[in-house]
Queue: 2 jobs
Job 1
Amino acid sequence: MKLNFNHDREFDIIAIGRACIDLNAVEYNRPMEETMTFSKYVGGSPANIAIGSSKLGLKAGFIGKLADDQHGRFIEKYMREIGIDTTNFVVDNEGHKTGLAFTEIKSPEECSILMYRQDVADLYLDPSEVNEEYIKRSKILLVSGTALSKSPSREAMLKAVSLAKEHDVKVIFELDYRPYSWQNPEETAVYYSLVAEQSDVVIGTRDEYDALENRTSEGKNEDTVNYLFKHSPELIVIKHGVEGSYAYTKSGEIFRGKAYKTKVLKTFGAGDSYASAFLYALISGKDIETALKYGSASASIVVSKHSSSEAMPTVEEIEALIEKNETISV
Ligand SMILES: Nc1ncnc2c1ncn2[C@@H]1O[C@H](COP(=O)(O)OP(=O)(O)O)[C@@H](O)[C@H]1O
Ligand SMILES: O=C(O)C[C@@H](O)[C@H](O)C(=O)COP(=O)(O)O
């Protein structure tokens, strides 16, 4: 099965949600308490996905709210210079700050993120700042789950989803679940299921689908797809870390993508690089099995590097890794 996009659209992908700062530990293999220096990168899951898409040659745009400060200006400039259309960034004029993510790399298996996200500008995106004319110029609207965690950003997302549906723009929902952004699991499940049920494609880890279904123990992929296929989704991707990922189609096909062997430096960034290359492949007309390979190869490259955004690979790097065919059998 292949996904059909509106090929007359100027943008391949418009992402909506947060564009923030990652501060990644320079001295790794040690706890944060002992880390003295950090490198600055653009971060935030949807921004990373837009950057990854742009590096792969897609025409990407972004809708979001930036702080009126040095970090906000750094983010806008970085994204613009990488080729992303930044005209639909709104600058906050109420003193809200840029979200920061400090990353700790204790070992390749033990990484964590310390987020500073109190009163961050991105969650103040207002529905009135979501432009219908802009959304209808794209093949895809990429919605990040964290942007649903608070109003007014939550309503801005719901408006964007409804405009996308009205104008035949495919809605891709990246669950991007960050527990600390939410009041409680019931709230998450309400908004996650609301948007997932309206999306064309849903991408997330098994844990994230458990949050969507408000489960306390691990659910079964079969139950998840049976539920979501009663609604709009035509393609559901469920990721299982190093064990790889599965894609399910509404017509009943199941595909497995295996992870590629690599020298892992840190595990974060995998999901965003996976999403950008998976979507690149689908937009380029490749079949789902091939798209899983692109996503997995891209993730494998990014986990071997220091950042999530700057490290996003080129098509050539991804294809070279797929060609080597050194997958992980778990
Ligand atoms: N240690 C690893 N080595 C190689 N590839 C990996 C590794 N961990 C994850 N990946 C790849 O990244 C994809 C996404 O990772 P996962 O951890 O499931 O998502 P997320 O980063 O969103 O939590 C996986 O499906 C796999 O292809
Ligand atoms: O999404 C964020 O706000 C932080 C990211 O920029 C960070 O690089 C990260 O956590 C990415 O992880 P992923 O979700 O595993 O791709």
Note: The pocket of LHLMWEOZ (ligand 2) is lined by residues 20, 22, 43-45, 48, 101, 113, 268-272, 308 (CB under 6 Å).
Job 2
Amino acid sequence: MKTEAKICGLTDPAAMNAAIRYGADLVGLVFFPPSPRNIAVEDAAMLAGLVPDHVVTVGLFVDPDDELIDRVLSRVKLDAIQLHGEEPVDRCADLKNRTGRQVYKAIKVRDADDLVSADRYAKVCDRLLFDAKPPKDATRPGGNAEAFDWTVLEGRKFGVPWLLAGGLTPDNVKSAIRMTGAPGVDTSSGVESAPGKKDPAKIKAFLDAVRSV
Ligand SMILES: O=C(O)c1ccccc1N[C@@H]1O[C@H](COP(=O)(O)O)[C@@H](O)[C@H]1O
């Protein structure tokens, strides 16, 4: 089965067009001011306008309030909302009902115990996303180029599709897919030349690697 590939944290048209041209299934826009990938609403609206219908546009939020979600959705054509903070299951369900968008919940993993909540989120969310627990001194809860022990996900199923994230690069994504059987993969830092600056050549290399599995 084809592995879904998401390129997250896009901030400029060249990178967005590269992600689309080289075959991303999902593209991500970050609405979290402390992130070097944070994007202004009007810029996001312009980038989302470049995305063809067959590609899913995902907005990434960290513990967003309703005002932020409504402000973004009033201007930006998003298909899905990725929640990367400490959002409880009820909040995910509430946002799904309020917005009519798909909701993806990021679960931060260090070891197998961190997967315990996944089944509860899978009951209300459309996809799960497994990312590494951020280091103690991190300034953001994701996008830290940190990988975790992928073996905890080996052969796991959760009732909804899931994405493996955290420190994935053009060099390691093939082994990550082979080891975990992940139905989808997501990268941000691994296809950048500097924090927040996507590199079209790395985007191509990542997507080529995913397709070669
Ligand atoms: O990218 C960010 O700055 C970010 C900020 C806050 C929460 C999540 C963030 N990124 C997401 O984290 C994973 C893994 O990223 P990486 O490949 O390790 O850089 C991915 O879903 C990013 O979109």
Note: The mean pLDDT is 97.
